[in-house]
Amino acid sequence: MDERNNNGERKQDKSANSEADFPARKKRGRPKGSKNKRHECVAVLPARCVHCDSSELIVEQTVKTRKIVGAMNGVKYDTVIWRDCRCKACGRINRYRYYESKTS
Ligand SMILES: [Zn+2]
Fold this sequence. Notes:
Blueprint: E1 57-66, E2 70-72, E3 75-77, E4 79-87, E5 93-100
């Protein structure tokens, strides 16, 4: 942490419209000379509304969660979560099963 920023008022005065939210001297972006790291790019298809095919969904509630270990298309999962989601486009509710991998 760089405590030299501003004039020391940064911590007390967070709500005020000051530099608190934007520490002026904090450098943005990556430090110079950092190496490029290759990340594998994974394609993720969104859940879609069964009524109108939109993928803009808002989770309304988690219905249930079960520890179920399995694999789908070669991708392992250990948790299955049922969620009701409201479609932003048509407003209707869809129920989805999410296959997730939890570390704990
Ligand atoms: Zn819809």
